[in-house]
Amino acid sequence: MRLSDLLSGIRYELMSGRLDTEIRKVICDSREQVMGNIFVCIEGYHGDGHQYIEQAAVGGAQAIVIQNKDFVSSDILNQLTVVYVRDSKEALAVMAINFYGNPANKLITIGITGTKGKTSIAAIIGDILKTANRRAGIIGTLGVQLPDSIEPRSIANTTPSALEIQKYLYEMVQSGCEYAILEVSSQGLKDKRVFGMEFDYGIYTNISIDHIGTNEHKDFAEYLECKSRLFKQCKYGIINLDDDHFYDIIKEAACRIYTYGFSITADLMGKSTENYEFKTYGMEDNNFKINAIGDFAVYNSLAAILFARLQGIPMEFVKRALKTFVAKGRMELVNVSDAYMVIIDYAHNAKSLENVLKSVRKYGGKRVIAMFGCGGNRSKTRRYEMGEISGRLADITVITEDNSRWESPFDIIDDILTGIKKTDGKYIVIPNRREAMKYCLVNAMPGDIIMFLGKGHEDYQEIQGKRYSFDERIVIKEIMEEIQNDDADN
Hints:
alpha/beta, 10-stranded mixed β-sheet, single chain, Udp-n-acetylmuramoylalanyl-d-glutamate--2,6- Diaminopimelate Ligase, Chain: A, domain 1
């Protein structure tokens, strides 16, 4: 592709070289050596791409894009085509769109943002479209899912880089997809990973204090503002009317807004009944049944139903999809025993923990047993709050490890204890997560609801920079076999 075509839609200054330079690949990692590439210098959290201009040149760069002229020597100006832009992250996003031929324009795109519910809504919409025989791809927490793939392709971030997003959208077009569903994180919006895209639909779930700290958001105001950006770049917004920050999200929106929630003023209003059933009113008067528990499951369903309604998808397909829906690691019921219930959920902050514990309370149960840890190199406040909430809402809290990353798991546990000791809640500390899970299962009583929290869909533990295989579904199966063998021996 010619450089001039690649830069279409970007304001730039050509400092040296020619616009008819042929570009074979767009990169932002200087270690990726491809002859004839264009290297985009990104100022990141862990380094500045401008420092690797020389390395990129050696690796085959034909041109570079910069936003800081101080790093460009006369030798580089003589050697390479150099393009100056105001914001290299924005430029990279637009260049990625141009390089892959703007694949989003050939798809119906759905962007989903919010603290909780993104993955579930993406999965529900995906199931609805599949049930209605419409081909869709998904990019999000569970990976990249194409309609013909058996397993999702793993990705490092919920919202991957701008280059990866456009590449995956291109692959969706090539595989005959009609729809693309993207989980759009606040970090993805902050880092301009979807800059330049116009979504057909933007969906907002909710917001609570999370992702505040080093390498994330400086404060809640920035977190909220980043979430709201999605609705400046979509045609239709599907917004949770019941969220406390509804008006903050829509105040600068450039799209037509549709609302959902339990409020009678919502365009699509839902009302929980019982036995996993709920009713809808307003834009769709109907009865639904979902294979999940809790009010938040109804909220997620309402967002998906409203989308389907706007797309003209018959409700018979929606009903069928909801009835069999399973979201990995999102209030996922694990079939262990008829005597007690085991649930795996990704709850890893105070608000999500509070929501899941309150939800299971509505389903009775003799005791609610909450087992969780907290991630290392993340906010300490989250640990205090989660300890306090579990102490208030769970009958027994089992405190263990999660992804301790570079921190000591014992230091993390101490922080959780700071919170739980503010309550009268019963608790036990079992640092090894597998042993903590075994404790819960061995001591389960009829009517108990056991919650394994924090890992959800993850199939690993991250300790001291290494990832170790740890899928709680597999671990549960192994533990139950051990318990059965122990009973047989006795």
